[in-house]
Specification:
The termini are close together. The protein is globular and about 55 Å long. A hairpin with a 2-residue loop joins strand 4 and strand 5. By secondary structure, it is α/β, with parallel strands linked by helices. Helices cover 39% and strands 19% of the residues. Bound molecules: adenosine monophosphate (AMP).
């Protein structure tokens, strides 16, 4: 199988991120983003070798229109011949998919059925798959699932304290997300440790607009903070994370909320934006805290960091050894303030930061920011697209054998 380059597609409800990656070298030949889809503002931006161009999309302003623009550009740049497959990020693979999978009609049906567990994500991923089938009809398509890395979690980590029948009959259990990112940074940390991933014990914190912490034992995910949906666990940009279920009954029974109001509240109006009443964006909150002494921005960031530190500390229960902690995601890679605030609460686990290294490791820089006497603490820029390209290429090579 010639796996020259893989076109990686990450399709959201109103956006498509794409990258054309050579898995052997990791080189990105082209990348871009289609955004504001299904509105008249729909546009696609394509970057190639330092050149960046934006195109307005024609009616019907949808995913198919975005991919048509991409195909024309790929043709003009003479890159279509280099593409050997399309790798799709698919958010929910349930218990069925723990590995990258060649997309067939049966797999599409399974992704569609799993939409009941990921109603915001899987339908959008399917739109991307269908649009790519129409645009690149003779190329194989591979699904790489965000839940797959966490399928190694033991029962004790994935069961809720609910009746067993809800798990058995309806799949209500913890699945975890951001798996591709946690897997990538764990591999990079293993390289830093100069030992195989299977011998590494790590805790990784993916902190972006969505946030999750994963504990990795002997190279495998054994617990993670997100659950059946990405709503569980940490405080995030707009999601509240863990919540006393009694609050939902109180909102509905006594405060006039409907179920869809609660859904909007916990997923779109809570977390950093909810507490700060200002923004879900960490940069905005840091500026407001440091420059204007904004009380609610300070509170939002303080609660955010405490919850992360508590989560990291709780995962020491899953391990007998710990090689180090990894920060990744937009906040984890860039906010030295957030990293300081988290790590200063982890002294009992023998973590302490070298502040000079911490301040210097931002904007794409990677490295160990811990003091000499501390356990390792790395900042690692995540690269989910590369994992999707690499795993798609690997699957196709294996299938061709
Ligand atoms: P992601 O979802 O991984 O793209 O991360 C988005 C989050 O990263 C947003 O909250 C941003 O404010 C945050 N972020 C990006 N750059 C910085 C920065 N330089 N300092 C602090 N937070 C940042």
């Amino acid at each position: 199988m010639n796996t020259n380059a893989i076109l990686v597609i990450n399709c959201g409800s109103s956006s498509v991120k794409f990258s054309l990656i050579k898995p052997a070298s990791g080189e990105t030949l082209l990348s871009g983003l289609a955004e504001c889809l299904l509105s008249t503002d729909a546009k696609v931006t394509i970057k190639q070798q330092g050149d960046k161009k934006t195109y307005k999309l024609p009616d019907p302003f949808d995913h198919q229109a975005a991919l048509s623009v991409l195909v024309v550009q790929l043709q003009q740049l003479n890159l279509v011949k280099d593409i050997s497959a399309i790798g799709h990020r698919v958010v929910h693979g349930g218990e069925k998919y723990s590995q990258p999978t060649l997309i067939t009609t049966e797999v599409e049906q399974a992704i569609s059925q799993l939409a009941k567990l990921a109603p915001l994500h899987n339908p959008a991923n399917l739109i991307g798959i269908k649009a790519c089938q129409a645009a690149f009809d003779c190329l194989p398509q591979v699904a790489v699932f965000d839940t797959a890395f966490h399928q190694s979690m033991p029962e004790k980590a994935y069961m809720y304290g609910l009746p067993y029948s809800l798990y058995k009959e309806h799949g209500i259990r913890r699945y975890g997300f951001h798996g591709t990112s946690h897997y990538f940074v764990a591999n990079q940390a293993a390289k830093q440790l100069n030992k195989p991933l299977a011998q590494c014990n790590l805790i990784s914190a993916h902190l972006g607009n969505g946030c999750s912490v994963t504990v990795i034992k002997n190279g495998e995910s054994v617990d993670t903070s997100m659950g059946m949906t990405p709503g569980e666990g940490l405080i995030m940009g707009t999601r509240c994370g863990d919540l006393d279920t009694g609050i939902i009954f109180h909102l509905v029974d006594n405060l006039g909320y409907s179920i869809s109001d609660v859904d909007k509240l916990v997923n779109k109006e809570s977390g950093l934006v909810g507490i700060s009443d200002l923004s879900n964006d960490c940069r905005t909150l840091e500026n407001a805290m440091l420059e204007d002494n904004h009380v609610q921005a300070t509170l939002a960031l303080t609660v955010f960091c405490y919850r992360i530190a508590k989560s990291i500390a709780s995962y020491s229960a899953s391990l007998t050894q710990l090689d180090g902690l990894v920060f990744t995601g937009g906040i984890g890679e860039n906010s030295s303030w957030v990293r300081t605030e988290i790590v200063k609460q982890l002294g009992l686990l023998n973590f302490s930061l070298d502040e000079e290294k911490n301040q210097a490791t931002r904007f794409g820089a990677s490295g160990n920011i811990a003091t000499k006497n501390s356990r390792a603490c790395w900042v690692i820029a995540t690269n989910e697209e590369f994992v999707i390209a690499e795993q798609s290429a690997q699957l196709l090579t294996n299938l061709a054998k």
